[in-house]
Recover the amino acids of this structure.
């Protein structure tokens, strides 16, 4: 009997969107403001029915754009409310200005992001160009492999965001359609357990506290702006301690353990594929099949991209022969994708750093199949033998 | 920034010269209200409004429209002049003034 069953968790069949909407219902945020965009729309649509049915106490604001949605939750969060919104792709892009304002005002907003390709050409399907573009906005970013992880990450995100040492907003990312619209089996905690786990938000200051008035977001020029950015950087650094601490408590409730990343058959692997999101699931199957043939492949599935767990990545990839780094986004740097750049930079500190290769794949929802993953492993197992990678950055699954 | 108008609810003053990023309130929050008056914006001005009390008809449109509450009044609500410590010289008062010459903008002298 699993701990999930022992602890009385409910087994559910939900899509990623349904799972996150259900998590939001259990969180029962004070304020949700949102604007619809495919493939996120369902989350807020389902949540709005919880509001209409009186199953939550949330003030639900329908706004005229994502810029307004993020602005509204910034105001609500500054007032001390536990505030959430959700978006995808161009909606996230329209929030851009306010993403930075949310983070720099240290507002613990939690936002499910259903990853979708940024236009143009216009496309509604999965890639990570939206959230990868926002990687330097000051938000914590958690990536999910399936509906269970999207649910679990949403619950944990509340605790991470609101922790006194962090006070930063969190994006909980899941792959558009592949996770958001696919039915999955998962366990869910009961409402009371969730509410005990997340507790009540105790804001440092509140716009509505007339006994203790405060000025939010004042002009901050050459004199103190830099110090406030330094504080913000420290909050992100502190998240490296808080994220595992929250995960540990969550594991005590559920038995489901979350690290900065998950290593799958990576211990003795010659080639480790670094990947985030749903592709990790496909890659695990491929690794199992390869192992049966005696080929040493492994997976490092990155859950936390912001903050980047650089020291832990150094330890995990130390001594491996090749790290094959997967990017579901093109950064147009003419030298590789964003995950590649970050991992490659982090493992520069390894005493024995692995060789690295980069695969840009799955843009605009292009299917990523087991044979693609196998191709990556085959190329990099050869490189491990020859000690040479002739094409570091490749496009996987494009018509060459 | 001056503290000349600090009020009773003040719990935080301008940081001391040796303060670091660890010492100042997070996110730049100023943990008291009513402090905008302490920020002197008058030196942003490149044009200065001149109020002529003789020509002024006391319609108070300048007072209504001023975005910085920089049009001063007496106890009876009559316009008495401009608060040059805060006036940014935007010129809205002069545009809204219906009386020729009662509120005119002149270049600041350097």
């Amino acid at each position: 009997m699993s701990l999930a069953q022992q602890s009385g968790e409910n087994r559910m069949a939900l899509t990623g969107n349904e799972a996150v909407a259900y998590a939001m219902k259990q969180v029962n945020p004070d304020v949700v403001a949102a604007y619809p965009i495919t493939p996120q729309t369902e989350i807020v649509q389902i949540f709005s029915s919880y509001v209409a049915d009186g199953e939550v106490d949330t003030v639900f604001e329908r706004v005229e754009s994502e810029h307004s949605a993020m602005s509204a939750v910034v105001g609500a969060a500054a007032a001390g409310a536990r505030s959430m919104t959700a978006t995808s792709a161009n909606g996230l892009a329209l929030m851009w200005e306010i993403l930075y304002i949310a983070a720099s005002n240290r507002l613990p907003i939690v936002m499910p992001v259903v990853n979708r390709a940024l236009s143009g050409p216009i496309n509604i399907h999965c890639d990570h160009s939206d959230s990868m573009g926002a990687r330097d906005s000051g938000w914590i970013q958690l990536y999910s492999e399936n509906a269970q992880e999207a649910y679990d990450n949403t619950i944990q995100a509340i605790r991470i965001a609101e922790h006194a040492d962090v006070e930063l907003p969190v994006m909980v990312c899941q792959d558009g359609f592949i996770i958001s619209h696919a039915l999955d089996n998962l366990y869910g905690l009961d409402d009371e357990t969730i509410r005990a786990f997340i507790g009540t938000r105790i804001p440092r200051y509140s716009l509505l506290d007339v006994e203790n008035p405060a000025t939010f977001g004042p002009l901050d020029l050459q004199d103190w702006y830099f110090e406030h950015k330094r504080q913000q950087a420290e909050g992100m650094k502190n998240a490296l301690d808080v994220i595992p601490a929250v995960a540990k408590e969550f594991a005590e409730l559920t038995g489901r353990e979350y690290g900065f990343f998950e290593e799958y058959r990576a211990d003795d692997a010659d080639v480790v594929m670094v990947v985030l999101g749903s592709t990790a699931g496909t890659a695990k199957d491929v690794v199992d099949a390869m192992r049966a043939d005696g080929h040493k492949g492994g997976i490092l599935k990155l859950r936390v991209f912001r903050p980047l767990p650089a020291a832990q990545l150094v330890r995990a990839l130390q001594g491996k022969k090749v790290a094959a780094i997967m990017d579901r986004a093109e950064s147009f740097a003419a030298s590789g994708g964003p995950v590649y750049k970050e991992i490659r930079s982090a493992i520069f500190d390894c005493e024995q750093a692995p060789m690295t290769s980069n695969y840009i794949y799955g843009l605009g929802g292009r299917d990523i199949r087991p044979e693609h993953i196998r191709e990556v492993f085959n190329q990099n197992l050869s490189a491990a033998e020859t000690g040479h990678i002739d094409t570091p950055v490749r496009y996987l699954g494009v018509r060459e | 920034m001056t503290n000349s108008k600090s009020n009773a609810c003040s719990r935080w003053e301008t940081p001391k010269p040796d303060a670091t990023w660890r010492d100042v309130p997070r996110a730049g929050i100023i943990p008291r209200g009513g402090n905008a008056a302490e920020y002197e914006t008058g030196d942003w001005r490149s044009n200065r409004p001149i109020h002529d009390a003789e020509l002024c008809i006391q319609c108070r449109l300048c007072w209504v429209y001023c975005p910085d509450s920089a049009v001063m009044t007496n106890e009876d609500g009559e316009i008495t002049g401009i608060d040059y410590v805060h006036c940014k010289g935007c010129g809205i008062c002069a545009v809204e003034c219906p009386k020729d010459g009662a509120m005119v903008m002149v270049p600041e002298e350097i």
The domain at 261-396 of chain A is CATH 3.40.50.920 (Rossmann fold). Chain A has a mean pLDDT of 96.
